[in-house]
Amino acid sequence: DTSECRELVGHESAVYSIAYSQDGITLVSASADHTCRLWNVANGTELRIFWEATDVIECVVFSPGGHCFATSGFDNINRIRHGSSGSCLKEIWGDSVAEEYTFGTESLAYSPDGTVIACGCYRDNGAVRTRKVGILDVSTVECVRSIDIAEGFVSHL
Q1: CB neighbour list of residue 2: distance below 8 Å, 6 or more residues apart
Q2: Exposed/middle/buried for residue 84 (C-beta within 10 Å: 0-12, 13-18, 19+)
Q3: pLDDT tens profile 113-143
Q4: Considering only CA atoms, which of 51, 87, 47, 80 is closest in space to residue 63?
C-alpha cells in the first residue's frame, strides 16, 4: 500500500542510502552512525542492525536476486552480506582493485546476473587523484577488470 507513509526509527545519524530487495519485502539502509539496518517494509520494524563498520556507511545495494546486499563506506571496506541472516559473506578492500587504491564510498552496482559488482575507487598522489571502476567477481572477490576514468569522479554507478 503506497498511500501510507512509514517512519523507520533507529538510526542515530543521517541515512545516506536505501535499497529495496527485489521482492519489495525488505529494505536496507546505510547511515553515518556506522550501521546498516534491515527493515520489514510492511510494518516498518527493524529486523537487524549491522555494526562492523568503523566509519560512515554511504552506499547500499541489493543483488538482483535479493539474496545478498553490499555496502560501501569510509572505512574502505565493501561488505557483501546475506540478505536474510545478515552474516558478512565477503569483505573487499580497496587495494583489491589496484595497489594503493581506496574505494569511493558512494559507488556500488551489481551486474544484472549478480556475478560481479562494480566499485568506484581512487588513488590520491597529492595534487593528482586517479580514478578507476573495478569489476569484481562476487564469489572470489578478484578484480576481473578495471576501467580508468579520465576526468571527474565516480559518484554513482
Answers
A1: none
A2: middle
A3: 999 988 877 777 666 666 778 888 888 888 8
A4: 80
